[in-house]
User: Which sequence fits this backbone?
């Protein structure tokens, strides 16, 4: 297994198979604590992912779009995979395509923001976050703290272990991982939209060209950068975790693209 450095090793390290096995549209991303279950559950997406929104947003089948058009680089880090996927999706969801450049995802206490930019509709933002979460293997309703269904009647829950103790332990672990993922997914979407706004759209051949500023290298960024994600997203993850007494472990370092 090839280790992709993303989060500090003693909290939540991800691994990517050297063969880069494709799961519909995404790569298998595995936590060492649940390697077996993550690989087995990641064989399919659990929900239908389509965008239905008002103009200028158009109806898009996200799975079909990404599986046909996304060509990620094999040497990318996990965070770059997320950004690359989101950049493609964002260039496909408005008509005309460059309308997406009129939108932004706001960060807290960000001075000097461009008031001409509109907020990306929350339903679009949430759908894209939930989509990546589902493809990582955390899209099942049973993983949402406060799930009101009957776990004993859930085939997914039954697959988590050979007995009740194993199943409960694995469920809590997956809920914890799901909560840890959300701020990183949000940050990847935010930075991808920033890249798209900086890109040049050629209407004649319907292509996008990155700006010179988008030539990037991987650098370590202090955890406080993650803290600038929106209150709405972080509060949602923290509230869900609190419902199951899950401790959110902050990472000392993450990796971003500049």
Assistant:
């Amino acid at each position: 297994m090839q280790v992709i450095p993303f989060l500090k090793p003693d909290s939540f390290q991800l691994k990517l198979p050297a063969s880069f096995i494709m799961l519909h549209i995404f790569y298998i991303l595995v936590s060492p604590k649940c390697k077996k279950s993550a690989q087995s559950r990641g064989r399919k997406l659990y929900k239908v992912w389509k965008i239905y929104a008002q103009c200028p947003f158009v109806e898009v089948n996200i799975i079909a779009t990404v599986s046909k058009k996304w060509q990620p680089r094999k040497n990318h880090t996990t965070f770059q995979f997320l950004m690359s996927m989101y950049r493609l999706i964002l260039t496909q969801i408005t008509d005309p395509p460059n309308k997406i450049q009129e939108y932004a995802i706001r960060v807290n206490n960000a001075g000097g923001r461009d008031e001409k930019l509109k907020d990306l509709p929350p339903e679009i933002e949430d759908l894209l976050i939930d989509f990546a979460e589902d493809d990582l293997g955390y899209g099942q309703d049973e993983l949402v703290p406060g799930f009101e269904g009957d776990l004993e009647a859930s085939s997914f829950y039954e697959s988590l272990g050979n007995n009740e103790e194993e199943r409960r332990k694995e469920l809590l672990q997956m809920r914890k991982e799901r909560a840890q993922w959300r701020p990183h997914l949000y940050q990847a979407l935010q930075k991808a939209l920033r890249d798209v706004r900086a890109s040049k759209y050629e209407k004649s051949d319907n292509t996008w060209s990155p700006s010179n500023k988008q030539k990037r290298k991987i650098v370590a960024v202090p955890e406080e950068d993650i803290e600038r994600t929106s209150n709405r997203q972080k509060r949602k993850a923290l509230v869900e975790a609190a419902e199951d007494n899950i401790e959110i472990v902050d990472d000392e370092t993450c990796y971003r693209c500049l």
